[in-house]
Amino acid sequence: MFEDFLPLVEKPARYINSEINAVHKDLSTVRTKVCLLFPDTYEVGMSHLGLRILYDILNSREDTAAERVFSPWTDYEERLRASGRPLASLESDLPLSEFDIIGVTLQYELSYSNILTALDLARIPLRRTERNDSHPVIIAGGPCAVNPEPLSDFIDAFFIGDAEEAMHEIITLRQEHEGREKFLAALSEREGFSIPSLSRRKIRRRILRSLESAAYPAQPILPLMKPVHDRITVEVARGCIRGCRFCQAGIIYRPYRERSPETVKGLIRESLACTGYDELSLASLSAGDYSEIEPLMKELIDAYKKDRVSISLPSLRVGTLTPAMIRTIADIRKSGFTLAPEAGTERLRRVINKELSEADLMDAVESIFSNGWSVLKLYFMIGLPTETPDDLDGIIRLCNNILALGKRTTKRHVQINVTVSTFVPKPHTPFQWFGQTPIEEIRAKQAYLEKGLRRRGIALKPHDPEASLLEAAFARGDGSLGKVIEKAVQMGCRFDGWSECFDFGKWAEAFHACGLDIPSFAYRSYRLDDPLPWDFIETGATAEFLKRENARALSAEITGNCRVQCEGCGIGCEDGGSASLGRPQAVNVRTSPPPLAAKVVKEGDLVTRIRFKYTKTGRLRFLSHLDLMTLFQRAAVRAEVPLAFSQGFNPHPKISFGPALPVGMESESEYLDMETDPLIDLLTITKSLNQALPQGIRILEARIIPRKAPSLSGSISRYVYAVEVPVSCSNNLADRVKKFAELASVIVERQGKKKDIKPAIESISLAPSTGGAGLEVTLQDREEARARIRDVIEKLFEIGPEESALFRMKRIAVFCSLADRWASPMDMQ
Question: Residues 433, 466, 450, CA angle at the centre, nearest 5°?
């Protein structure tokens, strides 16, 4: 990414490329260069476990370099287009057009417009037929690849299935076949690859036989800005033994495979040690079905509770929630608890194959409330096949009954957050033949629920029905949608999964311009013997099995989970827990995970307060103050600093910072206080922290200060800045400064109020600068006025915020008031 854009865009930390554990190879020494494109923002993409796994696999090869690129936000895109420069990778700023392969993640349908936008920004022809040997080969994979047709005009090769082993085949074949056509032909002979340019044939999904031995990043990248899911994620199982009939993942990730508890604990231990995270997540489609979930949770809690590492289970089924499991989860940090009944009546839950009685649901809810939770999130779906008004009334009744139960159980305020999504019929599911409920009916259902749930303690959040309509059209679409997507991108469609960017009107116009309409794809119902656009993709679950499940749905008949009885779906395993495809072979030796390397000072122990002086320079200047605080906390854990923690319900490390530095400003004089074990060695802690911190953050000095010394934020009140003045503003600089100093007042407007900041401006003087002309500006916090350096620069040069952002500024000193003099924060006693 281009650093000169960063002062002018929202969230510049998305683009700064300075993360811990990121891989930077000399690209001149490798044979194959791969750029992994995640078509959404950095914070979304860095939450995706699959991207991290592929990044690790590719970079484990000496002959290959893998780099990343994420969809730039619209403001960065505008700057990029205006500059005439191409989209480049995060690690090395190499234009995407210079890579050998671009690997695209197809995680959700509403990211399709971002894929074309990225290719356009990279100056790579959008249509595969217009590319030649000078262009990278575009390979796409992920859950949406099970219906590759809507993107078949743009993608050179689709991969369907588990990619861990196939990644090595891709690289080997690319090195053996330099020509595009020969490479694609070679890929077509391997299982799991669909090549749109070649004649269509049946494509069998690639299945990883053993999750136990599968590659996994030993040192996951630690993002510098907060991603959507800011935690260590370890996949304990892949696939699902259940058979929810609306769920595409339950089909396309079959069969069920587990990692052994020993392997899970080892991955957690390694990941926590090299990142410093204080939260970990055990990921699977249904964590409660993991065969040793309760003993594993107990071991992890016992091992990490003293280190204040919380554990989350993001996907728990009500049927797997035993009272013991709820009590175990209650031992870790509580926020909200999430349940997904999906439907409001037992009848409809049987239709979707979610065997859950209302009594069992209420028992689980009562146990959750009695163990200390007061916030409960419920997921429901509307527009399901065979849904009736009684099913909507069931949602209302359930939510009201749960609220009443919570109040009786907790005797305090209870909050029920209800999320209602619209059913989207997905390919390769028993419901693939049903059409989506028309949007007018969905809106009426949402209004009915809103009226029935309008009461204190219940908050309803329905999904955007127009976004669900477009999602259904893409999910069920064919090759004719390519021209629609291309037209919509030309009209400016971007980030369609983001409510602030989604413009359904533009999509409707694009469909109309191409002679198509959205309902013809989303609403269409198929007969069971009709050909489907995605029929040539074989997921492993046979059409006969899906048709049988479709018939059972219409009869509201339950199909048991495949650990109880194999239903012959076609995958080929005997049951959901077979040794070859389910549970790993038993391990004789069970070892508990050792505690984290970092130590924690217990409550009541003596502690030492250490004050650090540090720098914030280079690209790290674009890190927000909140992200900087998290950065230091995790660095302290990795550096084995024995931190002191606050008391209370949610303890946090005792680290406090001086006044926040504006995003985009450098500093050679920042300060923080850290409370630690009293026997700490200052030289050792300084060295360890500097080794754990990224380039741009360096500790210059450390000193023990009294615990009762004034806080940094309350005592620092004088600031000195060095400012590089652009050439365009440097004419008559001395006269400008002199006239400004003679002003009686300097009025700025903040939040609609005008204030005079002149009393806070101590001095402005000319100073040498590496960029030519420069200034040294000294500001003071006064009772009557406080000045921000950018306000001063804007008033001095009579410019706006966008122009002032181009001034390179650095905070070179701060001072505290001490009696009748100014003192360094390191001298405070």
Answer: 100
pLDDT at res. 724: 92
Q: Are strands 643-644 and 753-756 parallel, antiparallel or unpaired?
A: unpaired
Which ranges constitute the DSSP H helices of 21-138? Answer: 42-45, 49-59, 74-83, 112-121
If you ran DSSP here, which 8-state letter would residue 516 be given? -
Residue limits of CATH 3.40.50.280 in the chain: 3-204
Nearest to 501 by CA among 118, 75, 126, 104: 75
The amino acid that residue 278 corresponds to is: D
> What share of the chain has pLDDT > 70, as a percent?
95
pLDDT at position 592: 45
Burial level of 489, CB count in 10 A (0-12/13-18/19+)?
buried
Inform me whether the pLDDT recorded for 630 exceeds 90: yes
The contacts of residue 282 (CB under 8 Å, 6+ apart) are 234, 236, 264, 290, 293, 296, 297, 311, 312, 313
CATH number of 232-480+516-554: 3.80.30.20
- For CATH 3.80.30.20, the residue range(s) in the chain are 232-480+516-554
CATH placement of domain 3-204:
3.40.50.280
Helix axes 481-490, 112-121, angle to 10 degrees: 60
Q: Annotate 539-593 with DSSP letters as a single string.
A: -SS-HHHHHHHHHHHHTT-----TTT-----SS--SSTT-TTTSSPPP-S---PP
- The closest of 577, 565, 580 to 289, measured between CA atoms, is 577
Judged against a pLDDT cut of 60, whether residue 594 lies above it is answered with no
What integer pLDDT is reported at residue 451 of this predicted model? 97
Query: Counting beta carbons within 10 angstroms of the beta carbon of residue 668, is it exposed (0 to 12), middle (13 to 18) or buried (19 or more)?
Result: middle
For 35, what's the count of Cα atoms within 13 Å in the CB-facing half-sphere? Answer: 28
At 146-166, the pLDDT tens digits run: 999 999 999 999 999 999 999
The packing angle between helices 261-275 and 293-304, to 10°, is: 30
Read off the pLDDT of residues 266-280 as tens digits, 9 standing for 90 and up: 999 999 999 999 889
Residue 336 has pLDDT above 80, yes or no: no
The amino acid sitting at 728 is S
N- to C-terminal Cα distance for the chain? 45
Q: What CATH number is given for 716-827 in this structure?
A: 3.30.70
Query: Which of these, 619, 622, 611, lies nearest to 658 by C-alpha position?
Result: 611
Confidence of residue 314 (pLDDT cuts 50, 70, 90): confident
Residue 381 has pLDDT above 60, yes or no: yes
Confidence check: pLDDT of 567 > 50: yes
Average pLDDT over residues 771-799: 92
Neighbours of 330 (CB within 10 A): 16
The structure tokens listed for 368 are 């959750």
CA distance 616 to 790: 18
List beta partners, residue 421: 381
Third-level CATH fold of 600-709: Alpha-Beta Plaits (3.30.70)
Q: Quick one: which H or E segment has residue 615?
A: strand 608-616
- Which residue type occupies 5? F
Q: Which two tokens stand for residue 186?
A: 């070679």
Residue 214, phi then psi, degrees to nearest 5: -70, 150
The string of pLDDT tens digits covering residues 547-563 is 999 999 999 999 999 88
